[in-house]
TrEMBL record:
PROSITE patterns to which the protein is assigned, alphabetical: ENOYL_COA_HYDRATASE
Key words, A-Z: Lyase
Protein name stated in the entry: Enoyl-CoA hydratase/isomerase family protein
Similarity comment text for this entry: Belongs to the enoyl-CoA hydratase/isomerase family.
Keyword Methyltransferase: no
InterPro entries listed in its UniProt record: ClpP/crotonase-like_dom_sf (IPR029045), Enoyl-CoA_hyd/isom_CS (IPR018376), Enoyl-CoA_hydra/iso (IPR001753), Enoyl-CoA_hydra_C (IPR014748)
Highest classification ranks of the organism: Bacteria, Pseudomonadati, Pseudomonadota, Gammaproteobacteria, Pseudomonadales
Amino acid sequence: MTTPASLLSQVEAGIAWITLNRPQQRNALDIPTLKALHALLDAHEADPAVRVLVLTGTGRSFCAGADLAEWAEAEACGELETYGWTEAAHALMTRLHGLAKPTIAAINGTAVGAGMDLSLCCDFRIAAQSARFKAGYTGMAYAPDAGASWHLPRLIGAEQAKRLLFLDELWGAERALGVGLVGEVCADDALLQVAGELATRLAAGPTFAFAQTKALIRDGASRSLAGQLVAEQAAGLLCGRSEDAGEALRAVAEKRTPHFIGR
């Protein structure tokens, strides 16, 4: 597929690198970018050559959230509630969160509002030392509208979520690491290397089993333990029938490292 200029995408060694590419707008999300990113996720999900996705940004910002110029234009036209940004953003967040393949956010700078929410939808978050996080919603007299109120309490607990959302504080990378908002912090110039190393490990793994595990974790919060055990049994049956499971058993018998193909 043709990728618009607002996004950069390349696939190498099973890793799809997606880069938000609107540096003059601090990689803010306008509607065309939201829809293009959604379409790109669909394409990578369907591509068997892609086993892991890494999302990052060009320049000094990961993503500044909603495009305020587009927002102001819609307000000037009396279309703020109907111009479609929220619907496009919600569709994208749902798609990214529900992706079967492992996802990594390599956070290279400020992540504000929906930009922070975009990172929260990923399975892993690696922050550069200079990364900064800000909810941004209450500072504009808004409540969260792209998933922060769902993700944050689950990741960092209700009180820390309220602190970040109510007080609209700017959190540095180390504070984000301390509360569990990100899983790792590294030097700015090592970010893509560190993200690439994690992506390479994931790409070499049993990605079919990863997909089943993601679904179990994602859906388990709404189940009882008994219900989750039933779901685990069903997922185990699917994994046991996979080619990767057969390869794992052969590798044990032959005393070698397994070669997984993701199915």
